[in-house]
Amino acid sequence: xxNATLDLxxxxxxxxxxxxxxxxxxxxxxxxxxxxxTKTAAIDQSQTISFTWEGDxxxxxxxxxxxxxxxxxxxxxxxxxxxxxxPRGVMSAGVExxxxxxxxxxxxxxxxNTNAATCEMFDGLVAHGQNAWxxxxxxxxxxxxxxxxxxGAGFYYKTFFSVSPFGSKGTxxxxxxxxxxxxxxxxxxxxxxxxxxxxxxxxxxxxxLVVGSGPAGLEAARVAAEAGLDVILAEQDFALGGGLLxxxxxxxxxxxxxxxxxxxxxxxxxxxxIMDRTTVFGLYDGGVAGLxxxxxxxxxxxxxxxxxxxxxxxxxxxxxxxxGAVERTIAFGDNDRPGVMTAGAARTYLNRFGVMAGRKVVVxxxxxxxxxxxADFAAAGAEVTLLDARESVGAAPDGVAQxxxxxxxxxxxxxxxxxxxxxxxxxxxxxxxxxxxxxxxAVSGGWSPVVNLLSHRGVKPVWSDEHAAFLPGETAEPxxxxxxxxxxxxxxxxxxxxxxxxxTILGRPTEPLEEAPTHVEEVYEVRVPDRKLKSFVxxxxxxxxxxxxxxxxxxxxSVEHLKRYTTLGMANDQGRNGNVIGLALMAEARGxxxxxxxxxxxxxxxxxxxxxxxxxxxxxxxxxxxxxSPMDAWNLGEGATMTDAGLWRRPWFYPQKTExxxxxxxxxxxxxxxxxxxxxxxxDVTSLGKIAVQxxxxxxFLNRVYTNGFAKLAVGRARYxxxxxxxxxxxxxxxxxxxxxxDYFMTTTTAGxxxxxxxxxxxxxxxxxxxxxxxTSVSERWAGMAVAGPHxxxxxxxxxxxxxxxxxxxxxxxxxEGTLGGALCRVARISFSGEFAYEIxxxxxxxxxxxxxxxxxxxxxxxxxxxxxALGALRIEKGHVxxxxxxxxxxxxxxxxxxxxxxKKSYVGSALKDRATLRDVNxxxxxxxxxxxxxxxxxxxxxxxxxxNMRGHGLGxxxxxxxxxxxGHWIGLGLLEGGVERWEGRTIVADDPARGKLTKVTxxxxxxxxxEGARLKPEMDPPTGVxxxxxxxxxxQRSALGTLWxxxxxPAVRGRAELDDVEDPNPQTGDAAAWVVECAPKPLWQxxxxxxxxSVVEDALLEAAGADAAPKPGRLAIGEDDIKILRVAxxxxxxxxxxxxxxxxxxxxxxxxxxxxxxxxxxxxLLIGGSRAAELLNRFLPLDLRDERFPVGSVATSGMxxxxxxxxxxxxxxxxxxLPRSYAKxxxxxxxxxxxxxx
Amino acid sequence: xxxxxxxxxxxxxxxxxxxxxxxxxDPEPKARYDAIVVGGGGHGLATAYxxxxxxxxxxxxVLEKGWLxxxxxxxxxxxxxxxxxxxxxxxFYEFSLKIWENLSQDLNxxxxxxxxxxxVLFHSPAGRxxxxxxxxxxxxxxxxxxxxxxxxxxxxxxxxxYSENARFHILGAAYQPRAGTARHxxxxxxxxxxxxxLGVDIIQNCEVTGFLHDATGAAIGVQTxxxxxxxxxxxxxxxxxxxxxxxxxxxxRLPIEAHALQAFVSEAVKPHLDYVIAFGGIGHFxxxxxxxxxxxxxxxxxxxxxxxxxxxxxxxxxxxxCVMQVMPSLGRARLLRSWGGIMDMSMDGSPIIDKSPVEGLxxxxxxxxxxxxxxxxxxxxxxxxxxxxxxxxAGAGLRLDxxxxxxxxxEKGAGATxxxx
Amino acid sequence: MLRIPCPYCGVRDQSEFDYGGDAxxxxxxxxxxxxxxxxxVYLRDDPKGPHTxxxxxxxxxxxxxxxxxxTVTHEITGARPANPAHAEVLKRxxxxxxx
Lengths: 1239, 421, 99
Hints:
heterotrimer, A: alpha+beta, Ubiquitin-like (UB roll), FAD/NAD(P)-binding domain, 7-stranded mixed sheet, 6-stranded mixed sheet, elongated, C: alpha+beta, Folate-binding fold, 4-stranded antiparallel sheet, globular
């Protein structure tokens, strides 16, 4: 067959055959000029599939890569280069590819910069070349090639900035050129559509992670697994075997193919988890590896619901790097011409894919591997000339013409190689000798072990003259290199080194490695005097040998400067092709050795990773979890427009229908605020932080963290308090309710909840360890409603019948407990709005029902539901501050609460709050503001300043504004130098240039409404004739997922596939791979012991639960009636399922022993099961759930998508998962999605 | 010394590019200098340049332990802006931006200052008011800034996620047209070359291992891996290692911690984003596209003391979640490289340019994320301080003793927790 | 990624923890002087190498722990509860397990 194609221009042939096919109505013929029959199993030539290249339909076979298919079809020109737009083709057969970088896919799925050499072929694949216009063959950009003398390294640093065509200075000229340069640069073009595909992240744990499935990887994995270790084998290729797939030589006396399949069988038998199409993209600290698995990129029509790629975080005790080596080319003239590729690549296309990249082949080598390629091509019937740079080597392989001491000087041809000028190595350097015809120039300049992953660990590679390559350096971490990655070129030795890696891990003796030493001639560049050649070092970034020498000439000699100045090694291949040559040329120029030039650090990722994959499931609506109040659905039902408050969603306002449409926000909140002051309003305040502070020393503790006194707060009373940071600035404010002698209920702002909670824990655990105080977040347990307005008492009276609301028994700042429709409730008479008001809390599952009951009572009284906007209006009228004023830069004096800073005691922040600048009388301080012309409007964020022109920061700023229904005009709060004292009654301006507004404002007291606080205690009876509903007898209980308890003939668990049919009582557990169901609620109690009272508390719990042994750390104990005791912290237990009368024992723990509280309603409990339950959990939870690490009865709290969740393994295949109630719906949706994908 | 210009490029191009000279010399350190600057990053080089140019102090050495720009100067996300709100910062960063606007001409080196504009998104009404306050202060200080509503942002960058499905909806943005990006390496090399041409000795691979003091305790020189070097004045600009060097020099502990910040760059693609986009609040994120075509982006710190120039996976995931939240069209673009830099995180998130308690020793530190955009002004003000022993007005607020007196410059209001700024 | 050995929960991912900073800072009494508090709140050794630091197992047992970590290599050589009383409790727990 060779004679038929002696000097065939592959591209022209392809063009012809393509046009023929076009006439044949686009149906691809299976004729592939480059394809020959292959013996290997890697390609299934019995099946023909089709793909589209540059609009032409071509044939391929399963097992092809895009590159092998293109070569088979005689397509050699695949794209244009980055800078000079030179024709480029396939240069390699792996991740090091520097030429065939193409665009795959169409529309929103268009994926630019895809490496054709690793892109798995599938039926219907569509691909295009890149960086060419109008076409690959006729590319305007190629003019750059002729201007290249002016486009040398760093040319852009030297021009484009002085005399501008517009005569302008500064940055204008550069920005004009920049637009041109940006258009010319870049490679492929991204779609602007959102990526329609799904991605996932997942967690895995193992004893040994083996990277690479060549001889070394296979043996390392086999030996480790057969010794009982838990092994994951990751292979980036879609076929396992690495170099074996291209091998014609035997390994350990067997044919490569047979040896490979035998080993693979052994791996499967030994239970190795094999992950193909999976790249280990990074090694991180703590034995953690990042892997990306291409799940459906190779599937013609993937299920739209399926995952495209999945990123794994794998933690392993040991890591074996059997990552192989990549072959280097040599720098010679036009070494980037299509048809020039590495010898190993040509051999891979021939042996693995049955693709003959040329029929008249010149192989140029500096080492033995090129000789093998030459032999394989000769055996396949090609006419082969072998140029070996070495003078003394063995006889030529059969059928190969050998020329010793020769190397290529320049490739000849147009869009494809047609010949090569060759040079001879002489005492005076290279001398041009001859010219040869060829259609393939296969080059081996030596091999570079893949040391990238080790480099991620900060291990510098070590230069070896013998190998003429960088070898892996030493590391103290449990990372073991094997095979070609250590410089071994011999197959048997590689396999043995893999076994040795496993032996080292197992503490077994290793076997000696025998490898016949082979000489590598160090040839990095071939050039002759007075010949201008364009020799590429980094083809992808068009870095030439000239650029390297120029960088040296200009003093950019350190490796990093060389890299940054020339962009050497900064392309997608991360310098796999060019780095060594670049270093060699710099070493030559500097007259030092290669290792003394150094080597650049390889950084993650090993190969480029899709951004979408790294984001995983946390996308769109699930970017962050959404925290919902128990009244969320109810609020929406009442027509609320919601707003974000941190992770929470809160009612913003409740627009009403009016004759001319629907209210806007201003109309709505003004109406809401007005009605609150006239009759009564209800506002969902569930998102406020709620913390139980318990213990004998709780009073002392509170007295230290608040600026005001808390030692004498009486039981049944509440108090407002301010906390400072220890730097003396205001941190948060809230109220504390004393429920019992040793039991306080603290509320914080929504924004401050998390910070305050962990701050209190920090103080107790690291500083005041002598205090016997337990702090527990109960934010999730209670649903809260503010009831404000003259009729507040009438509303509460009608729904809560067992609390006496009269002033004398329930005064302002009083706290009472009672029941609402049989549900426990807590009520405090406190006011944020300045109105006669209460806050009422019920257990969360009753929240929606409480809201409905309160609303039923409020409606007939002319009441209203109000959102955060009206809440803001009411508090601004009263001069109450929030985080708009407590912005982390203000002192307690600044925000007008100086009188709350005790002078009789020390407290957190008291020492630093009096620093000179913080006491400066000129500091901005809280003031009230109103437009001098009361018809005027001003906005938050405006700057307060004197009238007239000014430059600078002014006198202060406006922190909050609202239209005041009570006062009938706009008002605001602000912070102003000198405060009310200096400015009261004076007029300044609120300057808002960003919104084009300048408003004269008059400074007034921040207490702008009801200064004397008369409205806190008005008497107002229900208007005559108003029929208030009877108090509800029972409150239905609705879960965070919307389930109404008790479900008719309720099963122990119930579940559903979809979120909408919430009432379906049938558990859909079936025999699904993974299922998720919601559990019926059970009473949940928490007990905390003081360190020296652990056993006392344990005994009380065992007594109550009827269990016999207290659970050890991370375990649970099961008592009578499936009562569970979970140890969740060293001195904290949960007791689940206690009957009413058994709860007493827990609830009445002596304060001397510890504290206890109920957490029921705080969590949504799920049951997760199925054969793949653990896998489902590990999509989110970074927990090691392997049987020996997390046996039945284990308990662990971990993080799921930013939320703390608690997991207990109940049976071999089922787990209980407690989700914080407000997060539950969000997390449930993610779990159900993931479960559905698993089936 | 040859000047760079289009003509020079053509001339050299026609003569085989043989005539290019070294960008800067590689001198042996002298025994004594009038002033030495410890740290061959952007700030150190700029300081040396302005000492020579503005103050005629040319007997100056820059001592760099490794290669020029090997610290944060060479590993940042290249954003330049002046949208600061707190007195002390506002004027300083605007002063810097003004220098940036003519820096290429001044250095005769194209630093590729691209004033493409920065768009800082907000997602809530409170975010809008905060943006307005910042913009108002900028405007009242003569700095450009505009409040954009949702529709205006949509017009400028149509392919952000404006869908209902987004977890946080884009309500608008604060826009600074004069903000943008510059080429970080070019800034370092440009200052190095310009300083060298004024006679400054730039000495690489010269690590300071100790300080020399006289009887009064004043600093009079340094010990280095290349011998003892004496100097009248010593400026320290070693962000990332400030606390180490300050303690070595007898200054004592600083209100600074070292934390790693990761940065990311994607494969090069054709123009996909013409502005710098950023957002704060929930998550912290910024992204722009380099002239080469790579998307350059980053987010929050790896929040723990860190001297390793590498980060960890959790932040990698977090940052890429932010990419997808803002620009879901990038899902198929690929992360090409990631790296870490060591931030000099101060206790209020703002920098320090001040005399140290040690006579003759001057501090330039605490740059947090802000170092790159500050480079020219930092060098200018630091040179002024070293030359005149009094602060330059533009940098007068960046005092070391402000923490002691409670005059923090806290843009975020995060308080004395270094890693929360 | 840091893998932090929580004395109660065992080795867990860094993502479950919140950082608490230098654990060697000696916080003075609430009534101590402004200068003492200034030094405690603002000044840091910021060592390059071994660092004794606070972490809270926020998405775990919530315990504040003291971790010995190298700030250059990230090697973690020890972790204990910040509250010695907790350490005592766990010591007894794990003695129980071994006996």
